[in-house]
Amino acid sequence: MNARIAVVEDEEALSVLLRYNLEAEGYIVDTIARGDEADIRLKEIVPDLLILDWMLPGLSGVELCRRLRTRPETERLPIIMLTARGEESERVRGLSVGADDYVVKPFSTPELMARVRAMLRRVRPEKISTLLNAGDIDLDRETHRVRRLGREVKLGPTEFKLLEFFMQSPGRVFSREQLLDGVWGRDIYVDERTVDVHVGRLRKAINRGRQRDPIRTVRGAGYALDENFSASAKAVRPGMPAVAGARDSAAE
Known about the structure:
The structure is a single chain. The protein has 252 residues and is an alpha/beta fold. It has helices at 12-24, 35-44, 61-70, 88-96, 109-123, 157-168, 176-184, 193-206, 227-231, 233-236; strands spanning 4-8, 28-32, 49-53, 79-83, 101-104, 131-134, 137-140, 145-148, 151-153, 215-218, 222-225, 243-244. The protein has 10 helices and 12 strands. A hairpin with a 2-residue loop joins strand 6 (131-134) and strand 7. Helix 6 (157-168) packs across helix 7 (176-184) and helix 6 (157-168) crosses helix 8 (193-206). It is elongated.
């Protein structure tokens, strides 16, 4: 039941970045590099949401958006348009052909992910979970509260985002650079050593006494939420799902 998102973007580096971040949140991602190819494929499989670049080879994003709105099967498809055009007249044009949201390049990856979640929450609420769970840790995206074994854990905004990012993909090892992109965003310069500082603060906040540290340091690679810690959820908390996240609405 994970949400399926189609990304129509001809810039390979950006397409790879979007796929990586969307899959990290538990979405099923299809990437397409040409507008004419997307026109054909979207007749075969309709995703839950479309991220569409304005300028594409074969068929422009604006024309593709216009065509999708004329078809019964895609007339209500949520569409986020990406473009380097920031002028008001161009934004109006993009929205007038049927785009639901408009993001100007370069953009913040965390902001785009937030827009995706917000749109899916409106149109596909069953695809999005606001509650993440791993082992004995619960994170509520709406209230920004974290609890461990029922005890409320006080986290700063960056530590909260860092924990949320880890809990979306238990077991996955993230390099410091990937954590910087996913938590801080590409448009903010932060030294990689800052990641170590915030991971240290997160550990100090969530670990008390002899509680097991859920964050695993992988020497030379980065950090991960220990998948064995997450998988122990059923043993520690009977009746709770082993892992929950964006996939958790049906089961990330």
